[in-house]
Amino acid sequence: MFRFIGQHRHLRIGVLSQYQDELLPPGRRQAVAAALERCQVCRQELDQLAAMLSAMRRLPNGPAPRSFVFAAPPAPAPVARASLFLGAPRWVYAGAVSVAAVLLAAVVSADLTGSLVPQDHAPAMRSFQAAPAPGELAPQETAVPDAGQTQGLMKSAEPGSNGPEPVESPQPEPGIAVPLAPPAQGTPPSSEALETAPPGLTPAPAQETAMNAAAWADEYPSVAEGQATTPLMWRVLEGLLALAALAGLTALAFKMRRERR
Amino acid sequence: MTAAAQVFNCANHAPLPVHDRAGNDYCYNCVIENFQAPAFGLARRMLNDWAMAEDAVQESFVSGYRAFSQFRGQNIKAWIMRIVANHCRDILRSRRARPTVSLDPLPSGPDDVTPSAAEIPSAQESPEDHAERQELRRAIEAGLAALPAEQKMALVLVDVQGFSYDEVALIMDCSLGTVKSRVSRGRGSMRDYLRATGELLPSQFRQDK
């Protein structure tokens, strides 16, 4: 309400303006009137404001230069041609961008987690991701089972024995490495190692690596070669969604710019 | 015609019936005759161009005719002035986007303008007073032209054309507080402008040193 000039408090132009227009509430109006009585500078300001307003009200506001009345009713507004580009309301573009962005995020996250790999490739990918590198295996994991354990297991795998039925795709257990683990680079598979290795058992590290690489590569050649782990269709879909989001954003920016003009 | 239209008279023009949203009948030419002067005054001061102001008012009245069925029958003067104000805003916006330089000498107005009552010296006024008043008028017009568009519109509507704050809030499509603020700031800028060019103005506008 007040502004400070030197040691005096003077009324601001906004307060004086509202005081002049009688827009202040009664209590505040009385306070301003009291301040005006005390301060000559404020009174001078108010006088100047009043003189200026009086001069403005006397500005010529004469008649229009010509009559604007219609001799005949104006023609109806021309029907605007629907624009194919940027014709839709703004929320349509914003919504399209949002939907495309959400779908893109979903597809990309599914791709990163390996959910888009086909069913026949999925176990290979899972084992590929789950299996530790040969060099990282803990000693007890890479250790060859003792002779008795190995024999017992071999016996259980023999037909006609009383032991449990042989498991075609054994679950990874502690001490038994996953047979489909990827091979270490530079270690070509050896057919001899494959022949000597009993199914479901972990051979010695070198032998195990060679056997796993060959089995893995035979069963899932495309995965082993590092090609097309995610089908091309999903890649194309990701690209299309990204393009749609980008196009929607561009259209939205153009529309906002056009509307600002 | 219903009671709403009977406040007008169609002596000087052909009747042009229109209906508002509530079904009241009006003669649109009577509406034009009643409000064309303030509409043109606002457009001229907003655009600082006589010919553009004429075009703006004409187009505003055409827009008003086409949209009259949306009028809710509250304050027809504020409604018409709102259309004019919006049209002026559009022109100013497009002018800012595509600035043009007029080749005509300024100010661009007709030469045969009849002097208004404010310009005719009265019998009680001395020639010096008359000259001083004219100088003040020119300074105020120049100060108005220098104001930002929204402050100028608020000041023209409130202080020059005498609209109430509520009506100006309707016309400018903003809150009452915004109108008060724009008017206060506009008056402050105007006072500063008059003080800065105060040598030829009445004594009350000269800055005390």
SSE blueprint and pairings:
The complex is a heterodimer of chains A (261) and B (209).
Chain A lengths: L1 E4 L2 E4 L1 H8 L5 H13 L1 H18 L32 H23 L9 H9 L8 H4 L4 H11 L33 H6 L8 H15 L1 H4 L7 H29 L1
Antiparallel strand pairs in A: 1-2
Helix pairs in contact in A: 1-3, 2-3, 4-11
Chain B lengths: L2 H4 L10 E3 L5 E3 H20 L2 H17 L9 H22 L29 H20 L2 H12 L4 H8 L3 H21 L13
Helix pairs in contact in B: 2-3, 2-4, 3-4, 4-7, 5-8, 6-8, 7-8
Protein described:
The complex is a heterodimer of chains A (261) and B (209). With 261 residues, chain A is mainly alpha-helical. Chain A has helices at residues 13-20, 26-38, 40-57, 90-112, 122-130, 139-142, 147-157, 191-196, 205-219, 221-224, 232-260; strands at 2-5, 8-11. Chain A contains eleven helices and two strands. In chain A, helix 2 crosses helix 3 (40-57). Chain A starts with a strand and ends with a helix. With 209 residues, chain B is mostly helical. In chain B, helix 2 (28-47) packs antiparallel against helix 3. The N and C termini of chain B lie far apart (64 Å). Chain B has a two-stranded antiparallel ribbon with strand order 1-2. Chain B has helices spanning 3-6, 28-47, 50-66, 76-97, 127-146, 149-160, 165-172, 176-196, and strands at residues 17-19, 25-27. The model of chain B is unreliable at 1-6 (pLDDT under 50).
In short:
Chain A has 261 residues and is mostly helical. Chain A has helices at residues 13-20, 26-38, 40-57, 90-112, 122-130, 139-142, 147-157, 191-196, 205-219, 221-224, 232-260, and strands spanning 2-5, 8-11. Chain A is built from eleven helices and two strands; from the N terminus they run ββααααααααααα.
